[in-house]
Design brief:
The structure is a homodimer of 418-residue chains. By secondary structure, chain A is an alpha/beta fold. Helix content of chain A is 43%, strand content 21%. β16 of chain A pairs parallel with β13 of chain B.
Chain lengths: 418, 418
């Protein structure tokens, strides 16, 4: 069989599985999730053995220590995966929820009911724990999932899928509900992305290169975010201590993630007071600042910010800093350079807080809190399958509900159109 | 300038207009809509003059009478357009609506707020009245719109856009909020479909050929429906009179539209009673039946239904008829052949009604009413910009709300991540 046929076979069986998944009761899905969690822990030795093959291969290929770390399945990582699945059990099942119902003048009752999307394809890099996390969220929301991890994790991912499959089957769930693509060729991804008749949504997770490759080649709708160029704007009416804590946390707490701040905007009326104080904190944490001319007039000796810095996603202890002359200038800067991910204002002024919430149309807009809260768990979605900075279907962190759609339901008693 | 540059110029100015549109108050938008309605009526003579050029061209090209009818702007069509805009004024403005708000354990308040999508491209055929309808809905929902109608209606569409633009400007709305592409080359559509950095959504409206062309060539998300193969299932527990009315209405009331019934499924236990009675009604209305062998055993002399008939969208007084042995067989047939548009069951059995609503995952699922109710106005959305049979973003008839997305908003008081 060709790669094309193999991929088609996976997609056809996923679509078939999705039909029975759509009507499964929550109890059955929860039983399957608990089975999956137990099976991962029971099969830890087998998973680590498969993982060893990937590690050996990765060492030969000369992967960095950070990449090896992310690839490695330890007992702790495995029980983390199991724990993640058990947490999904506790989340409410979105499928079948009726989100609204209204009466029409002719006596019909019309409502909207949540249903699964169908088949979801997830294309991701390195970390094999994504395999279990994504499988759990898709199963709970009634979707079949096709997982295509990085080629360097192929043995681990296939082993995880085998364990999950038999755990599903024991709960009476079609084992094709969760499938890992075992082919490592890029051609297999290209074939998958053509199968719009079988797959309803593609979610790429990884670097910008992977995401661009997927979205340029897909005939299936893609939910994605390329990068997070998040801003904090310290308004002239900010509480200085609060601003210091929020700016520090947004940049330093975990600089390598998409919801970390990359550009700091400071109102000119408080810049002379705020910037030296903030600079001191950042210096202790090893943050390199790159400033606009007005910033440099206050913080002598820091690097220049170039035009590229305003749209840079450093993912590192580097921060672009700009002094703005007004609230409007801050909004204009954000409108021009932001990636629609997350922007925060620190202010005690009621009108400015409300204007910021209204006028900044990023997927998460924050008043007086760290950008780091832009995350499915932190926002209370209970889980996160990804984040969208495209506005269609979902915008911002995506939980279980974002893996569903809604159909119209009509209860009539014989109505016909005039 | 090349076509590419011209198209880019339109898209750039639309994006710019969308930024100011996003924060316009409802009063300003409503004022603009009322101005637009008045201006269309005041400029009726000018519009009919431009339309005459299109009509003359269409006659030369040998368009059918039906096509000429759809193309013609009469005083009645023009006041219909104006009336449509006035109705949009009366609809609630979805922008800024906070659809939910919850408290996090750390004291933050998190909510979701509706915002416009940004720039919407609408690609459609013939009818110039779509130009005003779509412009009104996009404006009310705070979106800029780029309209590309059929080349045969180009003079009419450009004239309508000119009238709408100056009416917008008089209300203080950026006149680039509504733009008609004046280029008739297909190349212009192809260029438009590449501009993912400026346009957020494409809605094609027209025949299957146009929709496939758009969705195969677009880098921008497309919301579409190819066709409506709608089913009515007359269950064994149906009220015969109700079934007769619903089946008649679903097929005959307006056969040329996507929510008309194309396949009738009848439970075997009532087929002998129901089919002859229904056949009599259909014969009076000139409906041609094409039956499965079991149907033909009851209704002698009707045509055979072939495999193609089960997925045919006739848009005409033709109906495929199948006798099914069970409720499950009806569901299987629908799952296999339906276009995810609209399916209806006629039954007095509580369990079957609930199972049908749950198990049929078309965008509109109906109990005891005509399929013809699958329509934005009939469902109470107040308006309809199109219908989606793809599950992402919107599924089913789309009103104003479906032209928006939601951002997360966070009210904090200094929270940082641990």
């Amino acid at each position: 069989m060709s790669i094309k046929d193999d991929v088609l076979k996976i997609a056809v069986s996923a679509k078939e599985a999705s039909l029975s998944l759509a009507t499964l009761g929550s109890e059955v899905k929860n039983k399957a999730l608990l089975n999956m969690a137990d099976a991962l822990e029971k099969n830890a030795a087998r998973l680590k053995q498969a993982n060893k093959k990937d590690i050996d291969g990765a060492i030969k290929k000369g992967l960095t220590k950070a990449m090896l770390d992310r690839l490695t399945l330890t007992d702790k990582v495995i029980s983390g995966m199991a724990e993640g699945l058990r947490q999904v059990v506790a989340l409410p099942d979105p499928v079948g929820e009726v989100t609204g119902m209204w009466k029409r003048p002719n006596g019909m009752t019309v409502g909207k009911m949540r249903i699964p999307l169908g088949v979801i394809g997830i294309i991701y890099e390195s970390r094999p724990n994504v395999t279990a996390d994504a499988a759990g969220l898709c199963l709970k929301s009634g979707n079949a999932v096709i997982l295509r991890g990085g080629s360097e994790a192929i043995h681990s991912n296939v082993a995880i899928a085998e364990v999950l499959n038999s755990a599903c089957a024991k709960a009476g769930v079609n084992e094709k509900a969760v499938q890992v693509m075992p082919m490592i060729d890029k051609e297999a991804i290209l074939e998958l992305l053509k199968l719009e008749d079988y797959i309803d949504l593609i979610i790429p997770r990884g670097g910008e290169g992977l995401i661009r490759f997927v979205s340029e080649n897909s005939r299936i709708p893609v939910i994605k975010h390329y990068k997070g160029v998040c801003h904090v704007f310290v308004d002239e009416f900010a509480d200085m201590d609060m601003a210091k804590n929020i700016c520090f946390n947004s940049k330093v707490q975990r600089p390598g993630v998409c919801n970390a701040m990359e550009t700091l905007l400071v109102h000119k009326n408080i810049a002379k007071k705020f910037l030296p104080m903030m600079h001191e904190e950042y210096e202790k944490a090893g943050v390199e600042l790159r400033g606009c001319p007005k910033t440099k007039a206050i913080l002598k000796g820091i690097k220049d910010a170039t035009e590229e810095d305003w749209s840079a996603e450093y993912l590192d202890l580097i921060l672009a800093v700009k002094v703005v002359g007004s609230f409007d200038e801050a909004i204009s800067h954000i409108t021009k350079y932001a990636s629609l991910h997350t922007e925060s204002i620190v202010t005690n002024d009621y009108a400015n807080a409300q204007r910021f919430l209204k006028e900044v149309n990023s997927s998460t807009v924050v008043v007086n809190a760290s950008t780091r809260f832009s995350d499915g768990f932190q926002l209370g979605l209970g889980a996160e399958i990804g984040i969208s900075t495209s506005k269609l279907h979902a915008f911002g962190p995506m939980g279980l509900v974002e893996l569903t759609t809604q159909k119209f339901i009509i209860y009539g008693n014989g109505q016909v159109r005039e």
